[in-house]
Amino acid sequence: MTEPRYGMTIPFDDVPLHAQADWVRELADLGYTDVWSSEANGADAFTPLALASVWAPSLRLGTAIVPAFTRGPACLAQSVGALAQAAPGRLAFGIGTSSNVIVEGWNGIPFEQPYQRTRDMVRFLRAALTGAKVTEEYETFSVRSFTLGVVPEQPVPILVAALRPGMLRLAGREGEGAIINWLSADDVATVKPHVDAGGPGKEIVARIFVAVSDDADTVRAMGRFAIAAYLNVPVYRAFHEWLGRGEQLGEMWRLWGEGDRKAALEAIPDSVVDELIIWGSAGECRERLDAYVDAGVTTPVVALLPFGFDEREAAKALSESDLTPAEPITVVLSEKGWIRAAKGHEIEPAGLAYREGDAFLISLRARSNQSLAIVDSGGRAYATPCHTLPSARGQGEPLSGRFDIPSGQRAVALAASDAEARWLLCNSHGYGFVTVFGNLLSRNRAGKQLLNLPEGASVLPPQLLPRPVDDLSVAVATNTGQLLVFALSELPELDKGKGNALIRIPKSKREAGQEWVVAVALLGSEQHLIVQAGGRTLRLKPADLAPFRGERAQRGGHLPRGLTRVDALRVEGG
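The structure assignment produced for this chain is given below.
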């Protein structure tokens, strides 16, 4: 089974949309991978996701769901295509029948042939989102000569809301998976086989109602209102009869039908409330979310119930219960700026498949619960949570979907660690400084200026300072074979900037492009420095480094003949 994704339902209740930016930005930092919107009596499904695409460019965006009836085919394709183009590779489009209440009661549209309408919309969108001209007679509508003008850069997965066997099988057969609402963890075993019949690897999104509270009386009382509001809708009543709750809910349905709302609410058993609504401490809620995952849900989506509890604090509390595991991953970046992450540290990144005309650039070993910093060729830094990166089983996604990297610049360096870890940042003209990792992180799509690069200078790979740092030295090598080793303590610690000179490069050679720094390494007092030059390797033990030791900004020593064209420095031992 693939690693689960964890979603949050947006927008939050009782907070104006414009005031939710910080809330949404926090979700990725808290370990959530997705945000999902619905379309009932609040906001439409697309506007909150469009805002979230800018506020939190690492989060996947999902609709759960858009009714198949309330937009015409072309209008729906335009909405999906525009959002998918605005957030490349990040949209999961969920569509479903909705209900007679919303479709007919609120929108005045006949709620007829819901299965066929949903199926036809899925088939139409499959064709339209490719940019092909669509002329087709579907069972429930026809389309003449429609061509979508905003074609997504990457295919948009389509998931189908499903509550009964026929629709569940449709979701598995013609969609990438199913979206299911109002079910218990034990119910997953009933619905999942129908989706899986469509083939392996299907996504199952479950919208799960959560109240982080130990107040049983309040949760159950308010929960009964929510359950009655949904489960008296015919499609949900049929769903729960199929799941086997007919006997438990029969009295509630009878009383509701007779108009006795108070008695109907009282007839909902505590056991049903406790099955369908997760409540309790944050740890207890997290355990129950895990039960859905264990049962086969790939994407549990939290819907925080507005029972007078602080939704923002509830989202934080859930994340404090280890929402994101700390697993080893390898981040892989291609030359054309496509990024992905593979499980473990044992993979060979250069051996992965790349898009035509693209190739491996750099990789980084990290952990899934860390933040990833990306530095571009102009010295700007961007950040995204590692756990939101696409899997290396595919070809990844373009960084342009997450960040606004300036024209003419490209991503050239990666870093990941705890926020308080310290890093050495350098450029090819021989300047550098030490900074804490938190200074590499930015929530803005446009990133922030981290390195002030002299004209013609390039960014060198960031170096993580090991702990302790008391006896660390910096080794700097140029393309002409100059090597200088000096104490790390001679470098300043800055938030951003150009830094201080590491090694002296004659101005005439630097400006003529004849000499530059090619490699930097950090080494302890007992470690060996390995110099790689072409096919040759030189091992310098601590005693061998004496000719190259000096103070920062000195010229250093010259490497032996045949080893002057340095490719890389690395450290061993100690």
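Interim note for the steering committee: DSSP finds 15 helices and 31 strands in the chain. The two ends are 40 Å apart (CA to CA).
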